[in-house]
Amino acid sequence: MERIHKGALALSGLIARTNNVAERHAETARIGPLWQAYFAEHHGQLADGKSMYGVYHDYQSDMNGDYSVLVGTLAASDDMSDIRLAEGDYLMFSASGEMPDCVVELWAEIWRYFTSPECQYQRSYLSDYEVYPDTTRVEIYIGIKS
Q1: Does the pLDDT of residue 16 top 80, yes or no?
Q2: For residue 79, what is the DSSP state?
Q3: What does the angle CA 118 – CA 123 – CA 124 come to, to the nearest 5 degrees?
Q4: What phi and psi values does residue 133 have, to the nearest 5 degrees?
Q5: Are the C-beta atoms of residues 10 and 74 closer than 8 Å to each other?
Q6: 105-120 average pLDDT score
Q7: Is the pLDDT of residue 27 over 80?
Q8: Mean predicted confidence (pLDDT) in 46-69
Q9: Which of 127, 145, 139 is nearest to 9 (CA)?
Q10: CA quadruple 49, 32, 11, 105: dihedral positive or negative?
Q11: The sheet that has 52-57: what strands, in order across it?
């Protein structure tokens, strides 16, 4: 884990609204089908050298409320973006391995960290995002209060 300051990002892709309760059940989960739909529409993005993003934003409250998810890539320009992530402070967690298993394990590590007594940061719940630089690595950025 590393604390870093990230600049603003303009992203484009597909968006869905969900919550963590819905994501626990295959019949109501929206994130997996969103990724599948994006790959069906944009086959080969990772092979073309473009990093993929999974962005969690527009939080109703915290991890217990509704939030929006974008699956996509960097926008060609600001006026072609679906969302713009604000500049801010983040904790970056990273993992390598078999997808999606290493992503699931990394999120479990993140949730354990933020619920542990040793955690010295508070999540901002403005935006969090996953970056997939290639097919075997993921970086997860969790927005924190300054």
Answers
A1: yes
A2: G
A3: 155
A4: -70, -25
A5: yes
A6: 96
A7: yes
A8: 90
A9: 127
A10: negative
A11: 2-6, 88-96, 137-144, 123-134, 52-57, 67-74, 9-18, 83-85
